[in-house]
Design brief:
Length: 241
């Protein structure tokens, strides 16, 4: 009788698998052989999963005849519950028995498989989460820092508003269309006052200066003529006397 484990450890929520083999030594044979399974702790129930035609799903299998040339191989497992937090290992024991009147000790064999913590769910980490972009070491939990109280702190950010009200609205004015036949004359008539006013604005100061100069020249000429006439009169009077 032999028992071999398929793996050295399993996480909680999975099954520990075993291979049970029954054989006979010394060129002998045995009939009506039954193999029974027990486990420790007993809360985790063992079952056959393969090689037993009528005992799969139970803890007992009747294999019939066994010889040294034709051993029997059976498959068994111990499902470990998800909530079995106190279970750290499971031990499977297989015992063979035959129907006989002779006194003998039934052969047995056992194997132990360690039980570890349940595997973490995809996309999460056991016991907590690490900050984004910072991988945490397996089995460690990063403590969360203090959470600041933002209820009494006013935000210094100013949301973007509409700045259209800060600028005056510019609306294009309507351009009156000239009436047929009067467009050219109206244009000349509107342009003439501007041209004449511009001439007055730039020529009038010059004309005022010229007029003042002419008046001053006339006054000087009159004064000169008057002096000359007076001198002639005085000279004629002196000569007559």
């Amino acid at each position: 009788m032999s028992v071999q484990r398929s793996q050295s450890s399993v996480p909680r929520g999975q099954s520990a698998a075993y291979i049970v083999q029954v054989s006979v030594k010394n060129d002998g044979s045995a009939a009506a052989v039954t193999v029974a399974l027990t486990s420790q702790p007993s809360s985790q129930k063992p079952v056959f999963t393969g090689g037993c035609a009528n005992g799969n799903g139970t803890a007992s299998c009747r294999v019939g005849a066994v010889s040294d040339k034709q051993p029997v191989t059976l498959h068994a497992q111990i499902p470990v519950a998800d909530d079995a937090s106190s279970v750290t290992s499971v031990r499977l024991t297989a015992t063979a028995s035959v129907t006989t009147t002779a006194k003998w000790t039934p052969p047995s064999a056992a194997e132990t498989v360690a039980v570890t913590a349940a595997a973490a769910a995809p996309g999460g980490s056991p016991g907590g989460s690490s900050p984004e972009g910072v991988p945490s070491a397996p089995g460690t939990t990063l403590p969360l820092g203090p959470v600041p109280n933002l209820n009494s702190v006013s935000s210094s950010l100013i949301g973007a508003g509409n700045a259209s009200g800060l600028f005056p609205a510019i609306n294009p004015g309507a351009t009156p269309s000239p009436s047929p036949g009067n467009g050219a004359s109206d244009g000349r008539r509107n342009a003439e006052p501007a041209r004449s006013s511009a001439a007055i604005a730039f020529v009038k100061p010059g004309l005022t200066g010229q007029v003042a100069g002419l008046i001053a020249l006339l006054v000087a000429v009159l004064l000169t003529v008057t002096r000359l006439s007076l001198r002639r009169r005085f000279r004629s009077r002196k000569q007559g006397s």
